[in-house]
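Project channel, design review

CF: Before we commit to the Nocardioides ginsengisegetis constructs, I'd like one complete example in the thread so the newer folks can see what an input/output pair looks like. Taking Ribosomal protein S18 acetylase RimI-like enzyme.
RD: sounds good, go ahead.
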Amino acid sequence: MAISVRELGDADAEEFGRLSAVIDADHPTPLRLSATEFREVLELPGTRFLGAFDDGTLVGWAGFLASVQPESQRFLVDGDVDPAHPFAVLGVLLGRVLDAARAWHADTEPGLPVLFVNRAASGRAEHEELVGALGFEPERYRFLMVADLDDVPTPGPVADGLTLTEFDPEDSELLRACHNEVFRDYPNGASADRDNWEGFMLAASHVRHHLSFVLTDADGAVASYAFAHEYAVPVSGRDGHREVYLPYIGTAAVHRGRGLASDLVGRVLHAAAAEGCTSASLDVDAENPAGALGVYERAGFRQHHTFVEYALREPAGE
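CF: and here is what came back for Ribosomal protein S18 acetylase RimI-like enzyme:
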């Protein structure tokens, strides 16, 4: 078996989609993309993917997505390998991707410390050993939660003094600013820079603005929001479902304690069910400081599986 490694591009999208399905059939993965979605990810700034090939067949991948956080440059570094091939292939790929990410950092944000984040399903000891050898340490846990949409309650009236709207692309920067303020103090970087926000929330085929809802106060400020996406392959990995995914949910500090997030989650689920979705999914930090886990459980979500978030930190360059 002779493995070769090269950068992945648009021409590899179909192979990436095929490999993603093979891996996901074996174990939960934090990134499963269709060919179209992979092409869209490649268009995001600060993105690079490498692939391992066995006689022309893609058998492993690793990549990074860079973003600028208030106090660091963050690289989401993920990867996986066909379970029929040696897991050591992933170690080679991740090592090369980390080197590429360090070079990217030196060219773009050398004055900021670096945070590398890697994710894998809980219980994968081989993965933990491999990333540990690269300097990563397990730091946080995230729950992937699912809900069935067979009996979603009809939403009640909008809270007094607030206005309900769907996601309006014209308000994108207002919504991004609110989101970044809501998640400003969250661990391991939850802010969204302009480029990634526009690629993820405006341009991608997975966006569902008509299923995404926003509450604003009398001054026009964002009080709460819950956004919806729909991926070609369900995020939960439960094939056979049309699944709505809620990537971002938040409430401005001055409006917390009013049940606004719960209200908007319910509206997203109700609208998605009316459109034919049969399930919903989201992920949440196991120690979310705003008590989001309870909000989601009351909305009918249950834990489906757990991901470990591994972190590697390096100081700013000279």
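RD: helpful, thanks. The mean pLDDT is 94.
CF: Residues 8 and 94 are 14 Å apart (CA to CA).
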